[in-house]
Design goal:
By secondary structure, the protein is of the alpha/beta class. The chain has one domain: Purple Acid Phosphatase, chain A, domain 2. It contains four helices and eight strands, in the order βααβαββββββα. The protein has helices spanning 15-18, 26-40, 58-67, 149-157, and strands spanning 2-5, 46-49, 71-74, 90-95, 98-103, 118-121, 134-136, 147-148. The chain has a four-stranded mixed sheet. A four-stranded mixed sheet has the order 4-5-6-7, covered by helices on one side. The longest helix is centred in the first third of the chain and has 15 residues, at 26-40. The chain is globular. The model has no long low-confidence stretch (mean pLDDT 96).
Length: 165
């Protein structure tokens, strides 16, 4: 099973991150995000992280990754200095016959959008209205959980067609 998520901001010790999400400390925030992730993601699942996993150095980032179930694909966002400059910024795949484009940033058009592909994004923390077959997979927009492929399909079934179809 595939899962999609973004904008966890693990270890980002700024009140505007953890207080906005209802926590009193970054430790409480991180513990709960890890718990919710592991509640739904199992070891054989693939998780696509669409950016802003952490601002921390690589060694600390790996400590978080080790606590999370699943096999991980990391895309660079605006706060991912722990990833190399050659880490991808976009991921494309056809799943169950549906083409999906994942990027940290929402796009007006994206690969195969004129053929009905879907765009999953983060960065906007649930504050940007998606257009067409788009969805913000960031934790702020999804009750602090990763979004399963099954849930993405449900969401997209209720979304309008892409504007350029």
């Amino acid at each position: 099973m595939y899962f999609f998520t973004a904008d966890q901001h693990f270890g980002h010790n700024k009140p505007f991150i953890y207080e906005a999400r209802g926590f009193t400390s970054i430790e409480e925030h991180d513990t709960e995000l890890i718990r919710r992730h592991n509640e739904v993601v199992k070891d054989g699942d693939v998780v696509v992280h669409a950016g802003d996993f952490t601002l921390l150095p690589r060694e600390r980032a790996i400590e978080y990754v080790k606590q999370l179930n699943g096999q991980h694909i990391f895309l660079r966002g605006s706060h991912d200095r722990w990833l190399s400059n050659t880490a991808p910024t976009m991921w494309e795949k056809t799943i169950d016959g549906q083409h999906v484009v994942v990027c940290h940033y929402a796009m007006r058009t994206w690969g195969r959008s004129h053929y009905g592909s879907w765009n999953l994004f983060g960065h906007s923390h649930g504050k940007l209205e998606p257009i067409g077959k788009q969805w913000d997979v960031g934790v702020d927009n999804n009750n602090l959980y990763p979004v399963s492929w099954e849930r993405v399909k449900e969401i997209m079934s209720a979304r309008p067609d892409n504007p350029n179809v």
